[in-house]
Design goal:
With 375 residues, this protein is an alpha/beta fold. Helices cover 29% and strands 25% of the residues.
Length: 375
């Protein structure tokens, strides 16, 4: 591949990352249209999943797209949904070459888009910077292939892994820069998951408070086996403005659910398991609603449940330069483990200073090789 090809695909990948957290249930895709070494159009999947990246880039390129090369981070779609197929748009625009980073696992596409382009006489190449492209669409791939979203576990702890003092004080362990970075993480995910204990202790609103960053409201999910969430909680009071889902055990009395439903909360009945909710079933219910990326923010019970079930794909660990000691509350409740071989293991993929704190990012060991993730 020529240097221009690499540069244009890197630009397309950067555009795709812009849409993370705002395009579900669709994947976030980037597209660059270049002719004779000059960029004539660019686009990325718009909030809500449409228009698609190719449509946006071709509209900007206009007649300059004829004879050009389109660099796309994901195979162009070949099926009719709410918008026409992107492969048809590329054909109609008269592009002469399409470079796709990776194929689309959606059974409605899965090679058909590239095949239609070839049948139309367009030169097609696939696989340029594929690992980076697959990292961006990892949540979409998981939802399509196994019916679960990608889960990132966010932790904010002291150096010895504590999230609060013995008396429950937790505001604030990390500094302002780390908290802003955590809000940025929220904006890159479709939904935020917490347990009812976190709602009771902190009364969070779970929004992204960085102006202009969250282009689509982040769905807020509470795992609440016993329906302990107060009706006066901020999540409930704002449920008509922001998607708010409470997952609780099946069989709850209709009278107990009615006030939440009246407040605009959507209730997700989930089977119970080992004294809590079946978290795999909860995540499956979110995937059915189109969610591709979930940020699990707490508390220690949710963290332990996800880790115990092998449901954590990535970890974002903010750690402050302080030590609480053994009487502080741990970030993860007992799993429990009897052997080291049973310990959930992750590999470090990034680490950086965030103000006075550090953010270290990990991927599950059995995931694809580490690469730039845009998380």
């Amino acid at each position: 591949m020529a240097a221009d090809d690499l540069n244009h695909m890197r630009a397309a990948l950067a555009l795709a990352r812009r849409g993370l957290g705002s395009t579900w249930p669709n994947p976030s895709v980037g597209c660059v249209v270049a002719r004779e070494g000059r960029v004539v159009g660019r686009g990325w999947t718009q909030p809500g999943g449409r228009p698609h990246a190719e449509t946006e880039a071709l509209a900007r390129a206009g007649e300059a797209a004829r004879g050009a090369t389109a660099y796309v981070t994901l195979e162009p779609c070949s099926h009719w949904g709410r918008t026409p197929p992107c492969c048809d748009a590329l054909i109609a625009a008269g592009v002469s070459r399409v470079v796709a980073a990776t194929g689309d696992p959606d059974p409605r596409v899965d090679g058909r888009g590239l095949r239609r382009l070839r049948e139309a006489g367009i030169t097609v190449e696939q696989g340029l910077l594929e690992a980076e492209a697959r990292a961006i669409i990892a949540g979409f791939v998981r939802r399509i292939t196994i019916g679960l979203p990608l889960v990132t576990l966010k932790l904010a702890t002291s150096l010895d892994g504590r999230i609060a003092t013995a008396g429950g004080e937790s505001r604030w362990i990390t500094g302002g820069a780390a908290r802003r970075a955590a809000h940025g993480l929220r904006a890159n995910h479709d939904a935020v998951l917490v347990g009812s204990g976190t709602v009771l202790a902190d009364d969070p609103d779970l929004s992204c408070r960085i102006p202009g960053m969250a282009r689509v409201p982040i769905a807020r999910v509470v795992a609440d086996t016993r329906l302990r969430t107060p009706l006066g909680a901020r999540l409930v009071r704002t449920a008509r403005a922001v998607p708010t889902w409470i997952a609780t055990r099946t069989g709850q009395a209709p009278a107990a659910l009615a006030p939440f439903l009246e407040a605009g909360v959507e209730v997700l009945p989930v089977r119970a398991k080992e004294g809590g909710l079946d978290l795999a079933a909860l995540l499956g219910a979110l995937a059915q609603r189109g969610v591709t990326r979930v940020l699990a923010e707490g508390g220690a019970g949710i963290a332990a449940g996800l880790l115990r079930a092998g449901l954590v794909d990535r970890v974002a660990w903010f750690h402050a330069p302080g030590v609480m000691g053994g009487d502080g509350l741990p970030a993860v409740r007992p799993l429990p483990l009897t052997t080291l071989s049973a310990m959930p293991r992750f590999r470090r993929v990034a680490s950086r200073a965030v103000g006075e704190d550090w953010l270290t990012e990990f991927e599950r060991e059995d995931s694809e090789p580490p690469c730039s993730q845009g998380s």
